[in-house]
Amino acid sequence: MAETFEHDVVVVGGGGAGLRAAIAVAERNPELSVALLSKVYPMRSHTVTAEGGAAGVIKSNDDLETHCYDTVSGADWLADQDAVEILVNDAPRQLIQLEHWGCPWSRERDGSVAVRSFGGMKNQRTWYAADKSGFHMLHTLFQTTLKYPTITRYDEHYAAKLLIEDGRCGGVAALDLRTGSMRAITANSVILATGGAGYVFAFTTNGAIKTGDGMALAYRAGVPLKDMEFVQYHPTGLPGTGILITEAARGEGGIMLNRHGRRYLQDYDLGQPLEVTDPRHPQNRMMELGPRDRLSQAFHYEREKGNTFKMEEFEDVDAVHLDIRHLGEKRIDERLPFVRELCRDYQGIDPVHEPIPVRPVVHYTMGGIDTDIDGRTALPGLYAAGECACVSVNGANRLGSNSLVEILVFGERAANTATEEAGELKRPNPDALRTQAKDEAKRIQQTLLNGANANGGVRPAHVRNKLRKVMEAGCGIFRDAGTIQTACDALAELSEQAARMTLDDHGGAYNTQLINALEITGMLEVASAMAHSAHARTESRGSHQRTDYPERDDAQFLKHTLAYRQEAAAPRIDWKDVTITRWPPGERTYGR
Amino acid sequence: MAQMINLTLKVWRQDHVNDKGRFEEYRANNIDTAMSFLEMLDVVNERLEKDGKAPIAFDHDCREGICGQCGAVINGKAHGPDKGTPLCQLHMRRFRDGQTLIIEPWRTKGFPILRDLVVDRSAFDRIVAAGGYVTVRTGQAPEAATILVPRDDAEVAFEAAACIGCGACVAACPNASAMLFVGAKMSQFSHLPQGQPERHRRAINMVRQMDAEGFGNCTNHYLCEAACPANISVEHIAQMNRDYLRAVLKSKPA
């Protein structure tokens, strides 16, 4: 058992960050063999659903300094400024590189690359491919990986455990979903690029694959998770399904209305609205183009004031309107065709003629595996990039269109470091690694597959549904010590239940129930890190809003949270200073 | 209010790639017409699991019509009856109470059936690997804004790039031709300046790989275009043929 495959670098994750990393290794050193592991076929990775675009300074009226400041202030000063400078400086080069690989960016009339407005950005700098930007970026990257013979793909492989020997990471134990057999995939460097963990919440734009697997892998190996309490609610999801209506809809001029038809954002310190017919509308860093955290919070207040409306067809959830009718059919079809398609298919309305009902929905995890600016983690041989990592460039609130460049910039950066350091550490003994993979297979067989819990056990789906509701209730847009404590207690109880999970499917090939069970144990760990970090941060900053501590407290909390896993106990929370280079903490102002 | 319908499903069940396979019949009762087709399959699978039977394996992920993973032939139509719509965006309101649906995987030599409705589409990857990319190394990129792309060309490239690689074009074609897919992949680059240097080599290599994978030739039935969830036009097949012909003529000694 446990077939072994030897490589130089293993990349776990086939989304934007993982593919960019694999390409970077292949380009930097064609001698190295790269394993590209993905739980799903790479084109199914979540990057594919990104709509709005990727930020990079390209126009003559824009500058790097402003992009940095927008990002730092958008992050409520919790981002590391050295990392932000790297992101902003390298973004245009990365987007140009994609252009050269064939990414069909939308164009201006004169043939130059087109950019659009985005929330929290002072100037237009978001490159886009209509409203399927992530799709085209991922396709471009995927097709580019296919040209390198040194990249070997392991599609539909679930990374169950990091293989660690002599204090360093030397590969992963992965379940081949097609057969159910465990494989040891060994290497000198392992790059985690597994994406975020939005699926630990009940109402999310994230697909079912975004279960925080990489975060859990690193966490169990002793690597801390950073800033996990910061979870982004996107203000405009479709009320029933949670399907995202891109921020580009507001970038193009869409407006937010409460049930009285009032552009309510003007009541939340986000500036004064201009008429939609005014050529200066929409104004950047104002009103509808404020940052996501502030818009989602405004929704919450509107609901408390009774200014939202109820949607009978979706169990009476509250919603407000996003209105793009004034853009006209032609512009909607040209710039936002996917928005129209989604509204028609999933909401049964045509946004050309009707306003779109929306409500906030969990969208992004700012926190993740603690890495330095070169993608290194605390464990030698282990690197991370993309949404699963926290460098951090997003701090307490990510600006839309920064993540699609983050995956490129830091995907390449982590890969460069991993390539350089691949030869430095002594390669672990392959027999020892194989034994670890075998032990993991045995553990799964004994705990889950042999039906030991057939009596009195719980189904994985039951634990997962509960977990997702607990997080929504306890760690939502607004939290306090009480709701968070309730979540922590419920998670502890669910962890006990999860130890007694029982399966109906005991087979090998495509045993999705088994994979779900493995994902759930990881989701519980990640959720626990989120809840306990939220508990420890007794201030309000960005997306972390505590009703019992409503003010930002720089004296105590201009610090990253680090959650360390402890065996059979709550995580230990530690702190790490934020790197400030050129932008001292100040007031976050929008529209004034 | 919610409208419920009852359906009979005849679903292709096949345990592994070498299994002979067979149709099995299931009742799908009380199906909310607001459900998508895949949600309907979820419901059927839940009931199958409750009865201790193996659920129907099918590929899916984003359920927003963009990842290209889902796909099945319903009553002889790839992705079902709606134009420009993949399976995940097909809704049950499209069907009548009491209807029988025959649900099959893509059937073509190029896509071996792995289990039930799941097929192996790696042939598409191998065709792209034969040339569907641009060979520019990182770090050598000059200023992007200096390479102007006429908007009309950019739009054609964009339309071609919208292909989600689902394989419905092959499943719909009486000849099992993959030319709409290959045409789209090639045409994207043929309309962009960065695709020009390798244009001829790309055409020859991709067509050669397409033939090697056992896909057939286009004989202008246009069923691929009708089945395509991304509305890719057969114009791209014509573009591919022009590129290929030019490449072959150029590569022959005068």
**Structural category of chain A:** alpha/beta
CATH superfamily of the largest domain in chain B: Alpha-helical ferredoxin
Helix content of chain A: 25-40%
| CATH architecture call of the largest domain in chain B | Orthogonal Bundle
The helix fraction of chain B, in percent, is: 25-40%
Shape of chain A: globular
Q: Which series of helices and strands of chain B comes N to C? A: EEHEEEEEHHHHHHH
Global outline of chain B: elongated
Tally of separate helices of chain B: 8
Strand order of the largest sheet of chain A: 7-3-2-11-19
Which helices and strands appear, and what pairs or packs with what?
The complex is a heterodimer of chains A (592) and B (254).
Chain A: E1 3-6, E2 9-12, H1 16-28, E3 34-38, E4 54-55, H2 64-74, H3 81-100, E5 115-116, E6 126-127, H4 133-145, E7 151-155, E8 157-165, E9 168-176, E10 182-186, E11 189-192, H5 213-220, E12 225-226, E13 231-237, H6 248-251, E14 255-257, H7 292-304, E15 309-311, E16 317-323, H8 328-335, H9 337-347, E17 356-365, E18 368-370, E19 382-384, E20 389-390, H10 403-421, H11 430-449, H12 460-474, E21 478-479, H13 481-498, H14 512-536, E22 545-546, H15 554-557, E23 559-566, E24 569-577
Chain B: E1 4-13, E2 22-32, H1 37-50, E3 73-74, E4 77-78, E5 100-104, E6 113-115, E7 118-119, H2 122-129, H3 151-161, H4 168-172, H5 179-190, H6 199-212, H7 223-227, H8 235-251
Parallel strand pairs in B: 1-5
Antiparallel strand pairs in B: 1-2, 3-4, 3-5, 6-7
Can you describe this structure in just a few lines?
The complex is a heterodimer of chains A (592) and B (254). Chain A is of the alpha/beta class.
